[in-house]
Amino acid sequence: DKGGHKHYMAKEIAEQPSVLTNALGFYIKDGRIELPGAGIDFTKIDRLTMVACGTAFYACLTAKYWFEQIARLPVDVDVASEFRYREPPITPGTAALFVSQSGETADTLAALRYCAGKADRILSVVNVPESSIARESDLALPILAGREIGVASTKAFTCQLIVLALLAVKAAQDRGEMDAEGVARALEQLTALPGLLNQALALGDRAAEVSRKLAEARDILFLGRGAMYPLAHEGALKLKEISYIHAEAYASGELKHGPIALVDKHVPVIVMAPRDALFEKTVSNMQEVMARGGKVLLITDAKGADEAGDGVWDTILMPEVADFVAPILYAVPAQLLAYHTAVAKGTDVDQPRNLAKSVTVE
Ligand code: F6R
């Protein structure tokens, strides 16, 4: 049942405010973060190793910024297909965390089995509680996204991010890096997300308008800085999966180290940049693109649009949002652009060619 939507993907994008509300309600009780079962005590952990594939991998990369910045916990992130063949040493005090919507991805499960008996704790963030990855973990944290049918992951991604953000706040609190006031503020910012996502979803028509232009491109670049950098990767992955347009993501500051050679008047460059502490640097990266005739699509808030000035090709105006939770909100325009570009191209949105929902072979 597509609930009145043309595609499962559209339905699942639209469901995000309500599934995020469920997840927040599950983990936040009386203003405190409560994990199921025995939970985890981050005072006993001094390194986190995160492993996943695809979209779940980009959720891990985003979470690395959170764990390192707010909890001062060192984090390694790896794609599952590379992880175990490298035979990484797992030092005492390491928790290993596996993120998987299906809980059945072969490489991620194999990486978990590699860590079993080596890591202090095996944690997982999963959508399917009875899956192999959940069953073989010491602690499985559900994302409560509900069944995801569209092959391109959308609501599972934002639910993974919410659970990882809560875990990072818990780690910060356990490790004495965040006081009660800081925790309360972080939880407020997370709790504000469903409302903000509703506002972002209202930009659907705007995204559709821009997407009709994007649909004509052969190559598209995504740029982001800080925690927006992994999101740039997620935006590029979503777009290539369902619209078959070649898309690449770069850290904004990396552009001048090579990829800027690709920029000309045919290449849209999508810059995901809320007005944060690094915004000024992003503006100068954007100017480098525009000076070479590149078409910049800026996704930012009113302050950002104001500071960026003239010369951009187009702008998608987002609500203002706290830096900490911005990647979760900005996932929405990334999804909407991919979706509407695919619709404009007439591709099979829910069943893209060559792809399966769950990859249970290596
Ligand atoms: C992208 C997508 C894939 C999955 C990846 C991992 O839209 O859906 O990249 O994210 O195959 O799958 P899970 O999360 O089930 O382990």
UniProtKB/TrEMBL annotation:
Transmembrane segments: none annotated. The keyword Cytoplasm applies. Keywords: Aminotransferase, Cytoplasm, Glutamine amidotransferase, Repeat, Transferase. One of its GO terms (molecular function) is glutamine-fructose-6-phosphate transaminase (isomerizing) activity. GO terms for biological process: amino sugar biosynthetic process; carbohydrate metabolic process; fructose 6-phosphate metabolic process; protein N-linked glycosylation; UDP-N-acetylglucosamine metabolic process. The active site is at K357 (for fru-6p isomerization activity). Residues 38-177, 210-352 form the SIS domain. It catalyses: D-fructose 6-phosphate + L-glutamine = D-glucosamine 6-phosphate + L-glutamate. Coiled coil: none annotated. Its EC number is 2.6.1.16. The keyword Magnesium does not apply. GO terms for cellular component: cytosol. Its main location: cytoplasm. It is found in: Cytoplasm. Homodimer. Catalyzes the first step in hexosamine metabolism, converting fructose-6P into glucosamine-6P using glutamine as a nitrogen source. This is Glutamine--fructose-6-phosphate aminotransferase [isomerizing]. The lineage of its organism: Bacteria, Pseudomonadati, Pseudomonadota, Alphaproteobacteria, Rhodobacterales. The chain holds residues 244 to 605 of 605 of the full protein.
